[in-house]
Amino acid sequence: MFRVLTNTTINPEEPNKKPYLQDYKIDLNDCGPMVLDVLIKIKNELDPTLAFRRSCREGICGSCSMNIDGRNTLACICKIDDSSKPLKIHPLPHMILLIFICNYKMIEPYLKRKTPTAVGDKHLFQSVEDRKKLDGMYECILCACCSTSCPSYWWNSDKYLGPAVLMQAYKWIVDSRDEYTKERLEQFRDPFSLYRCHTIMNCAEACPKGLNPGKAIGELKGLMANIASMPSKNSSTVGTKYK
């Protein structure tokens, strides 16, 4: 039998009881190979009160991100390789969802245009070269595995935007179709939102999609160094291909 220890958080019916690890025993011969398969089996057969988020089961939606044996990852793509020791599952550390959403909202994650064009009037085409600048960023699924692996984000999540949001910000800044490059960069003229990144690079190590948020943040810092000489309207020469 395979042991699974899941973190049980605050029970509203017992507000004074501290979180604890709940112990389950599972027969892996009657279960799928992924951690998410185990969690679904526990919920369906052993404990209907077990709560967790999931959706696609293909590593695409980012819903099932959690800390598994000390590593932030997606339960749907995390295979159980060693059944000789218990599996410990916790929520993502220091993850305050409201702060994460507010940080993401702050970067205005959508195309912004200055050229007056009626909605749907024409396509916003990109060259192959401009499109390649977005490689390694558009694949981000906002699972927050990177941000919740970052010590700077743990202690400053209300001020430091974190790897996930900063990589998304860089994606919109280097998108040739967006015309608010300089204005977007102006948001980072403070000591915390961008510059609390100390290139620890836990973010790249944790990303289940194999992306490199730390490199995107480095590119963003480079753009900030040249912001004074940057024209207000976006240019397709801004940014570099990175992965």
Automatic annotation (TrEMBL):
Location of this chain's protein in the cell: Mitochondrion inner membrane
All copies of domain 4Fe-4S ferredoxin-type, residue ranges: 130-160
Cofactor remark: Binds 1 [4Fe-4S] cluster.
Organism annotation: Rotaria sordida
Membrane topology field: Peripheral membrane protein
Any one GO MF annotation of this record: 3 iron, 4 sulfur cluster binding
Listed Pfam families: Fer2_3, Fer4_17
Associated pathway: Carbohydrate metabolism; tricarboxylic acid cycle; fumarate from succinate (eukaryal route): step 1/1
Cofactor: [4Fe-4S] cluster; [2Fe-2S] cluster; [3Fe-4S] cluster
Recorded GO CC terms: mitochondrial inner membrane
Entry EC no(s): 1.3.5.1
UniProt catalytic activity: a quinone + succinate = fumarate + a quinol
Family of the protein in this entry: Belongs to the succinate dehydrogenase/fumarate reductase iron-sulfur protein family.
Residue ranges occupied by any 2Fe-2S ferredoxin-type domain in the UniProt entry: 6-95
UniProt keyword RNA-binding present: no
Name the record gives this protein: Succinate dehydrogenase [ubiquinone] iron-sulfur subunit, mitochondrial
Keywords, comma-separated and alphabetical: 2Fe-2S, 3Fe-4S, 4Fe-4S, Electron transport, Iron, Iron-sulfur, Membrane, Metal-binding, Mitochondrion, Mitochondrion inner membrane, Oxidoreductase, Transport, Tricarboxylic acid cycle
Role description: Iron-sulfur protein (IP) subunit of succinate dehydrogenase (SDH) that is involved in complex II of the mitochondrial electron transport chain and is responsible for transferring electrons from succinate to ubiquinone (coenzyme Q).
Chief site of localization: mitochondrion
GO biological process, one term: respiratory electron transport chain
